[in-house]
Write a structure and sequence with these properties.
Layout lengths: L4 E4 L6 H9 L5 E6 L2 H13 L3 E5 L5 H7 L6 E5 L6 H5 L25 H7 L2 H12 L4 H14 L5 H11 L11 H11 L2 H9 L1
Helix pairs in contact: 6-7, 6-9, 7-8
Length: 205
């Protein structure tokens, strides 16, 4: 609706938001959320030239409180969630999301809050690591991988994406043709570090 009020819960770099703004009239408005400070910089740029966009540097689990704070709670016409990691996050080796780019093992959507993947992987118990790999990654070799991680970190802390990916690769006895052996484990750790399933539950509620 040209005069509607919409919410983009996962702004990213604004691809969906720009498409929504293109279809909104002058009376329409768009509220956008993102935990990533780099994403918010992009939102600031759009907002500086388009007053219809209002941004929140916040997780979408805080959706209701933020929408109430700007008196929009009863006016929302549509809400968009585009879940998962974004291409810019994968492409930036410093963010630590990708096993194909060597960098610090961070994985936080907002690097300013919470615990990095490196901190967690070096202190978590083997059973906890195994649980995360099994539940959030559906990784069938969770015992082998968690054991290999604990053995490796007893010799040297695991601090980079390539170190973790190599440990996982050496622990997995088979190779899938279409997937890197660390794919499921990296997904599992990212989901756990960012509490993604709880975020989705809260946001949808």
């Amino acid at each position: 609706q040209p005069d509607g009020v919409y919410v983009d819960c996962t702004f990213g770099r604004g691809g969906h938001s720009r498409a929504i703004l293109d279809r909104l009239g002058k009376a329409g408005s768009l509220l956008v959320f993102d935990k990533d400070p780099d994403a918010i910089k992009s939102a600031e740029q759009i907002s500086s030239s388009d007053s219809r966009l209002q941004y929140f540097h916040a997780p979408f689990s805080n959706l209701a409180d933020n929408i109430r704070a700007v008196d929009k709670a009863d006016q929302i016409d549509g809400v968009l969630f585009d879940l998962g990691v974004s291409s810019p996050q994968l492409d930036d080796s410093e963010r630590g999301f990708s096993f194909s780019r060597d960098g610090y093992l961070d994985m936080r959507m907002d690097p300013g809050t919470g615990t990095s993947a490196a901190d967690w992987i070096n202190r978590a118990g083997q059973d906890e690591i195994a649980h995360v790999l099994r539940v959030y990654g559906e990784e069938k070799f969770f015992h082998r991988i968690s054991s290999a991680i604990v053995i490796a970190r007893s010799q040297n802390p695991i601090m980079t994406t390539s170190e973790l990916a190599n440990i996982i690769s050496s622990a997995v006895p088979t190779r899938e043709l279409k997937k890197h052996p660390a794919t499921r484990a990296f997904q599992a750790i990212r989901i756990y570090i960012n509490d993604e399933l709880e975020e989705i539950t809260s946001g949808l509620s």
